[in-house]
Amino acid sequence: MTVIVAFIFAALILVGFIFFAQFASAYSRALREGQAKDSSSALRENEQDAAGVRDLVAQGRHDEAVEIYRNFTGVDLYTAKERIADMAREHRLGIKLGDIEQRLRHGDKAGAIEIYQAATGADLAEALQEIEHMQQRRKRR
Known about the structure:
Blueprint: H1 2-32, H2 45-51, H3 53-58, H4 62-73, H5 77-105, H6 109-120, H7 124-140
């Protein structure tokens, strides 16, 4: 009788491990494909606009934007500051995107990199990589 109980117990543990492995694999795949959301993506685009976060970033009122973002999403201070800094970079880049495109049209890759770095605060390697991606996208059009 003890052997049967031990066998059943072992079988249940094995089934549990198999289930966990399948769940972890599916969740991992969903994260890679962008279907699962993490806490940093909790605020959807239309909610950002509704909360006025992007407007505050555009006005340079980052501290207020961080507080609203934290209250709205429930994320910690570090995550909120990081996301607001990302929004500020995106805003600055949006303003300078026309200048970057013009430089690339005229073959001034170095000038485009300088503008990108000034707008985003990126290092040389990151700026170079992004400018090369922009050039590749332009060639595909």
